[in-house]
């Protein structure tokens, strides 16, 4: 539950972040700020962790159940020293080639020196951030979600609020980016502090380094590494292509059109944070019948909450853009509406993968699916971006619709879940929501409702849709939500 609360809080602040930043520092500088962020651990540099995060979470969860703390200390020291070594190498290479790289990124001359300063800082801080990211994974493995999600929220909310304040002071984008990196360092250091407090002993011992555990984690992580590398490259290349082939200005437009679809994708993944350790624990205890129940209940909760929102946004995209940023940006509505079609398949593509990682099953097939999907998306973007601009990015994401049913079928088979029931529930949620949304849409078209009037109509729509979908799909009432949560926990 804490994961859901923190995500909602972070998302709420982020909705103010984009319009305020664009208004105060300008569309171009906001685009340059986002441009720099693709070279951090949230972008290209995420691949240098070599997929070690999920294995850490899985094995720490399993070893905690069996009270095998010696092996946990070996995992921590092994991954920390490995990532520290990688961080030093990456830092040296990045600093050496930084000028050559930045000179080819189509950064305007007026902001070039500032951009170079921010770019160098990325490779100075990666030496600390990369190895200390281990402790965030350990907290997840220990199922310390309140601590982990609270620190994560503290970082993002602290960054956004401070950045908005600095933008009012007309502070330049590279200073705001410096704040972003500094808060990352603080966040990862706090991860370490809480892990140290949990184990109450010195966990840094070079003698605890284990080639055996490193090999074991890489064996599990090899598929995750390839998935992570392909995913990181394709996600970051989208903005890189926009920056080089179009302009950093268009990166701001990219941030706007992807904000709502990404919020829907991320906010409803709050259940997923518990899945890898919970699945690993169920696997250890051999309670495999609980997996299909956990999968079905958690996915149905997403279906009930997500699809009415997608339908609502499809009908009222322009109104939301006008209220959110300004009427000057309603030309971006068509891009958002097309991306919402991608949101329809997101629960199917994301939900089951966490179970497979927790079980250490079908990882090869998962790697193939992710690689093919991302490479197909990238191929479409590359061949179309010169002609269609931002539309090429949208078309790339829509291609993800086609391979998803194949992978989802394999996941359902592995977990002994009837996929046709899931598809039926999705159809019910979309159809009922579409029927109910027509009424406030027609009322708004005829009477041109005020903002407050439209908001009241939409709240009524959502409550009705939520009630009907919960009743049909899960045979429960609104008051049964605590029971749904209890079922997920008990599973």
What does this structure look like?
The protein is mainly α and 491 residues long. The protein has two domains: 252 residues, no CATH class; 224 residues, no CATH class. Helices cover 82% and strands 0% of the residues.
Count of separate structural domains: 2
Tally of individual helices: 19
Residue-averaged pLDDT = 83
Q: Write the element-wise H/E pattern from the N-terminal end onward.
A: HHHHHHHHHHHHHHHHHHH
Query: What is the general shape?
Result: globular
Output the radius of gyration: 23 Å
Number of strands: 0
The structure class reads mainly alpha
| Strand residue percentage | under 5%
Distance between the termini: 15 Å
Low-confidence stretches: none
Largest sheet: none
Helix-residue proportion? over 70%
Brief digest:
Helix content is 82%, strand content 0%. With 491 residues, the protein is mainly α.
Q: Could you outline the blueprint of secondary structure elements for this entry?
A:
Blueprint: H1 2-25, H2 27-37, H3 53-65, H4 69-102, H5 112-141, H6 145-168, H7 173-199, H8 211-246, H9 248-267, H10 275-285, H11 289-315, H12 317-324, H13 333-359, H14 363-388, H15 390-398, H16 404-415, H17 419-447, H18 451-474, H19 481-490
Helix pairs in contact: 1-2, 1-6, 1-9, 2-7, 2-9, 3-4, 3-5, 3-8, 3-10, 4-5, 5-7, 6-7, 8-9, 8-14, 9-13, 10-13, 11-13, 11-17, 11-18, 13-15, 13-16, 14-15, 17-18
Tags for this entry?
491 residues; mainly alpha; 2 domains; 19 helices; 0% strand; globular
């Amino acid at each position: 539950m804490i994961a859901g609360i923190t995500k909602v809080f972070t998302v709420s602040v982020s909705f103010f972040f984009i319009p305020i930043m664009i208004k105060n520092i300008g569309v171009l500088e906001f685009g340059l700020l986002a441009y720099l962020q693709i070279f951090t651990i949230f972008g290209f540099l995420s691949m240098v962790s070599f997929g070690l995060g999920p294995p850490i979470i899985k094995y720490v969860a399993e070893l905690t159940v069996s009270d095998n703390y010696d092996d946990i200390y070996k995992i921590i020291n092994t991954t920390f020293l490995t990532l520290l070594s990688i961080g030093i190498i990456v830092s040296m290479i990045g600093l050496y080639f930084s000028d050559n790289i930045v000179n080819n990124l189509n950064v305007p001359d007026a902001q070039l020196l500032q951009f170079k300063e921010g770019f160098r800082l990325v490779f100075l801080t990666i030496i600390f951030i990369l190895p200390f990211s281990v402790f965030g994974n350990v907290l997840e493995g220990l199922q310390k979600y309140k601590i982990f999600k609270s620190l994560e929220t503290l970082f993002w909310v602290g960054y956004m609020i401070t950045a908005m304040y600095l933008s009012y002071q007309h502070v330049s984008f590279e200073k705001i980016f410096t704040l972003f990196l500094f808060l990352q360092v603080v966040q990862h250091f706090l991860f370490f502090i809480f892990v140290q407090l949990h184990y109450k002993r010195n966990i840094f011992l070079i003698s605890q380094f284990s080639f055996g555990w490193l090999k074991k984690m890489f064996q599990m992580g090899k598929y995750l590494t390839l998935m992570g590398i392909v995913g990181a490259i394709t996600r970051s290349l989208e903005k890189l292509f926009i920056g080089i082939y179009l302009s950093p200005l268009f990166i701001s437009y990219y941030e706007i059109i992807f904000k709502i679809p990404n919020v829907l994708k991320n906010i409803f993944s709050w259940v997923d944070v518990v899945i890898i350790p919970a699945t690993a624990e169920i696997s250890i205890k051999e309670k495999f019948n609980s997996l299909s129940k956990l999968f079905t209940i958690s996915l149905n909760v997403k279906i009930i909450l997500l699809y009415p929102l997608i339908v609502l946004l499809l009908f009222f995209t322009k109104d939301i853009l006008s209220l959110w940023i300004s009427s000057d940006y309603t030309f971006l509505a068509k891009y958002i509406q097309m991306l919402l079609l991608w949101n329809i398949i997101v629960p199917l593509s994301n939900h089951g993968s966490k179970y497979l990682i927790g079980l250490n099953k079908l990882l090869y097939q998962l790697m193939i699916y992710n690689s093919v999907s991302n490479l197909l998306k990238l191929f479409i973007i590359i061949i179309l971006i010169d002609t269609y601009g931002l539309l090429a990015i949208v078309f790339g994401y829509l291609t993800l619709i086609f391979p998803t049913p194949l992978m989802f079928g394999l996941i359902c088979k592995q977990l002994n879940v009837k996929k046709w029931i899931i598809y039926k529930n999705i159809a019910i949620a979309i159809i009922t929501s579409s029927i109910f949304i027509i009424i406030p849409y027609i009322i708004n078209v005829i009477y041109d409702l005020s903002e407050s009037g439209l908001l009241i109509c939409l709240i009524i729509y959502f409550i009705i849709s939520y009630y009907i979908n919960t009743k049909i799909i899960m045979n429960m009432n609104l008051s049964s939500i605590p029971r749904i949560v209890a079922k997920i926990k008990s599973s």
